[in-house]
Amino acid sequence: MSEGTAKLEVNGLQKRFGGLTAVRDVSFSVHAGEILGLIGPNGSGKSTVMKSILGVERPDSGSVRVDAREVAGWPPHRIARLGVGMVFQHSRPLHRQTVLENILLGLLPDRLLDLLPGAAADARARAIAERVGLTEVLNRRPATLPFADLRKIEIAKAIARDPQVVLIDEPFAGLTARETASFARLITEMRDDGRAVLIVDHNVKSMSALVDRVYAMHVGERIAEGSVEEVMANETVRKVYLGGAIETAARPESAFDDAQTPFLEIDNLSVVYDKAQALEAVSLHVHHGEFVAIVGLNGAGKTTLFNAISGLVPYAGEIRRQGRSLRGRTAAMIAREGIVQSPEGRELFGLMTVGENLDMGGHRLGDKERGERREWLFNLFPILKERQSQTAATLSGGEQQMLTIARALMMKPDLLILDEPTLGLAPVIMEQISKALERLRQTTEITVLLGEQNVTFALPHADRVYVLEHGRIAWEGDPSRFATEAGARYL
């Protein structure tokens, strides 16, 4: 790291949206020849900090300096001209232009009289393409390229502008292990060029071999700063990501009597969105009556996994229920046959009442059976009985989550998939949902697949745990072994 004045300085940054303070008193610096990792869970304020640096958001107070020059409140184009570049998570090439033309665009001067590239610009663009590994595809258009090459175009465009400060958003999202290594090398080369690099990501581990320092955020504030090792060992960081002390009450796998043919088997499952690899060679199994937790940070692939099981996305590999392949079966057929998902986005009918939402879940039941099922659910979630005539849109977030789970249970599922049931909920609501899950575990034969970021909520209910990381299974085992064997990996 170079000594002297920082290339990028953020001091006392604060940004409010109405009554919500998204960023509070954030301060850090990045020097030439240094990579700083800005990490934090979803909703921690990382994106707001990045947008404030780029000029997309205007800070309410605080300072943003580039080469000691105050830029807070400047429009994005002025900040870019001063030497701040951005590598976006989602590639944004000009699809009608070739790869070479996309790179040349970054080399054009900001003057109307010099819009046509000359021989020097062409040679420079080709040199940049060679550096990032795009020489073989220079004359192709972006739509014909794999996802990794699209990310390389973003790097090439950033280098073309010759920025002294580079912001990189979620650099490894959607990349395979080999592609990640290649992309990491390109980022390291940018640091070696003497640029100041700020990487914005969810977790320490993905950046551990790359960054010089880490700045960790939670709910808009700094919680830790230092080396990768220091931040990973920080108790506050571990509490934010792991949720605190972990208590478990797992049943051994031998307690389930379908060892030869588990209720659900997933073999070598892969899912690609456009050109991004969302899941890669995922294999797992769930026994009848077992509670299995899939833990992973935001973007790890949990929702994609659940949507594949539910028949909502195409996939490669195999998904079997009790030995029978689900391939070719529609989402409606899969749900009718007993695999039901409670989605992360809730997707309630907002203008319908609580009772009407429940009836939608139980529409295939007879009147008597539907009424009995509804009463059973009111006993499981008493607040819904009080709110049964209230429209779903007027419920609190916690009440909506209970209704989402209850609607799924109205379908009498054999396998209930819960996608992030505690996301954004207050502790008191989490406790109520926890008690409901424990009651399901103790009094029914239902099988549950639980996807969660909050391992402290997930593990007490789990018989076994899988850690999903960048679309791949990184660890599996008994929940009692999670902290010692997978805690650092989860970070």
Largest sheet: 6 strands, mixed
CATH superfamily of the largest domain: P-loop containing nucleotide triphosphate hydrolases
Proportion of residues in β-strands: 25-35%
Q: What count of structural domains? A: 2
Number of strands: 20
User: Any idea what the radius of gyration is?
Assistant: 25 Å
Structural classification: alpha/beta
**Morphology:** globular
Oligomeric state = single chain
Per DSSP, the total helix count is 17
Overall mean pLDDT stands at: 87
CATH C-level class of the largest domain: Alpha Beta
Structure description:
The protein has 491 residues and is an alpha/beta fold. It has two domains: 8-242, Rossmann fold (3-Layer(aba) Sandwich), CATH 3.40.50.300; 253-490, Rossmann fold. 34% of the residues lie in helices and 25% in strands. The protein contains 17 helices and 20 strands. The chain has helices at 46-54, 76-81, 99-107, 119-132, 147-160, 177-192, 228-233, 235-242, 302-309, 331-336, 354-361, 367-380, 382-386, 397-409, 427-443, 455-458, 482-490; strands at 8-17, 20-30, 34-39, 61-66, 69-70, 84-87, 165-169, 196-201, 213-218, 221-226, 264-273, 276-286, 291-295, 316-321, 324-325, 339-342, 415-419, 447-452, 464-469, 472-477. The chain has a six-stranded mixed beta sheet, sandwiched between helices. It has a six-stranded mixed beta sheet with strand order 16-17-18-13-19-20, with helices on both faces. A hairpin with a 2-residue loop joins β4 (61-66) and β5. The chain is globular and about 80 Å long. The model has no long low-confidence stretch (mean pLDDT 87).
